[in-house]
C-alpha cells in the first residue's frame, strides 16, 4: 500500500508521515530530502541542479546520504531550502527524482511525503492526503523547529509557497480524491491517528 501525503511546508507532513509509517510498519519516503540533496550538490559543485541531478546517488534511510556522504544536517540549511525550491521547479530535475521515487514505491508498503506524490509520483496511491494549515501556524512551527524568528520564516515561506504553487511543472495542489486535512488546530497525534484509521479501514 502507498499512502501519499502532500502539502505546503510547515503543514506537519514530515512528523505526520513518520508517525504514520511507524504506526503501520511502513517505509517512509521523504521526497523533499531528494530535492534538497540535488540543490546542495549543485551549490557545492557550482553547477546547475539539472546538470547534477541525473548522476547523483541519493540514499534515504535514517540518514540522508549523497554519494555516500551523510548530508542530513547540511540539506536543512536555509540557503539549501531556498535553492531546493528553485531546483524543484526544473523539469529535468523533477523527471530524474520522480523516476527514482516511482522505482522505490513500486515495492512494499510506503508513506511518501512531498508536493506531488498524489498528483504525479503515485496517482494510484490507495490513500492520498493533503495537509494544510494557516500560514501563521506553519511559520510558528518552522520557527520553533529551526530556532529562528517567526517573522523571518513567514517572509521566506511566502516566497517558497508562491513558487511551489505557481510553477508550471507539477504545481502544489491536492490530488483528485485526496482527503484535505487542515492541521492548524490539531495535535500531531490526532492527525496521525486519523490517517492510521483511514489506512486500516482500507486494509480490511
Ligand atoms: O518538503 P521540503 O521542504 O523538504 O521540500 C524541499 C523543496 O522541494 C520545497 O521547495 C518543495 C520541493 N519539493 C517538491 O517540489 N516536490 C516534492 N515532492 C517534494 C519537495
Write the layout of secondary structure elements.
Layout: E1 2-6, H1 13-24, E2 27-30, H2 31-45, H3 49-52, E3 58-60, E4 64-66, E5 69-70, H4 78-87, H5 91-105, E6 110-114, H6 117-121, E7 127-132, H7 135-146, H8 150-166, E8 179-182, H9 188-203
Parallel strand pairs: 1-6, 1-7, 2-6, 7-8
Antiparallel strand pairs: 3-4, 4-5
Helix pairs in contact: 1-9, 2-4, 2-5, 7-8
The protein binds 2'-deoxycytidine-5'-monophosphate.
2'-deoxycytidine-5'-monophosphate binds at residues 9, 31-32, 35-36, 84-85, 88, 114-116, 160, 164.
Structure explained in plain terms:
This protein is of the alpha/beta class. It has one domain: Rossmann fold. About 50% of the residues lie in helices and about 15% in strands. The protein contains 9 helices and 8 strands. The chain has helices at about 15-25, 30-45, 50, 80-85, 90-105, 115-120, 135-145, 150-165, 190-204, and strands at about 1-5, 25-30, 60, 65, 70, 110-115, 125-130, 180. The strands form 2 sheets. A 5-stranded parallel sheet has the order 2-6-1-7-8. Helix 2 crosses helix 4 (about 80-85) and helix 7 (about 135-145) packs across helix 8 (about 150-165). It is globular, with a radius of gyration of 16 Å. Bound molecules: 2'-deoxycytidine-5'-monophosphate. 2'-deoxycytidine-5'-monophosphate binds near residues 32, 85 and 88.
Task: Summarize it.
It is built from 9 helices and 8 strands. The protein has helices at 13-24, 31-45, 49-52, 78-87, 91-105, 117-121, 135-146, 150-166, 188-203, and strands spanning 2-6, 27-30, 58-60, 64-66, 69-70, 110-114, 127-132, 179-182.
Amino acid at each position: 500500500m502507498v499512502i501519499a501525503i502532500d502539502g505546503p511546508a510547515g503543514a506537519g507532513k514530515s512528523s505526520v508521515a513518520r508517525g504514520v509509517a511507524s504506526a503501520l510498519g511502513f517505509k517512509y519516503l521523504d521526497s523533499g530530502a531528494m530535492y534538497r540533496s540535488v540543490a546542495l550538490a549543485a551549490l557545492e559543485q557550482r553547477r546547475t541542479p539539472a546538470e547534477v541531478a541525473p548522476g547523483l546517488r541519493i540514499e534515504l534511510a535514517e540518514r540522508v546520504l549523497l554519494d555516500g556522504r551523510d548530508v542530513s544536517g547540511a540539506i536543512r540549511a536555509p540557503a539549501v531550502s531556498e535553492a531546493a525550491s528553485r531546483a524543484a521547479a526544473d523539469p529535468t530535475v523533477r523527471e530524474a527524482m520522480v523516476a527514482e521515487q516511482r522505482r522505490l514505491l513500486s515495492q512494499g508498503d510506503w508513506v511518501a511525503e512531498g508536493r506531488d506524490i498524489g498528483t504525479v509520483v503515485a496517482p494510484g496511491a490507495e490513500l492520498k492526503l493533503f495537509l494544510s494549515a494557516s500560514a501563521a501556524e506553519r511559520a510558528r512551527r518552522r520557527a520553533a523547529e529551526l530556532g529562528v524568528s517567526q517573522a523571518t520564516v513567514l517572509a521566506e515561506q511566502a516566497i517558497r509557497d508562491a513558487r511551489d504553487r505557481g510553477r508550471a511543472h507539477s504545481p502544489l495542489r491536492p490530488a483528485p480524491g485526496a482527503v484535505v486535512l487542515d492541521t492548524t488546530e490539531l495535535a500531531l497525534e490526532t492527525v496521525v491517528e486519523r490517517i492510521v484509521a483511514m489506512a486500516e479501514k482500507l486494509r480490511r
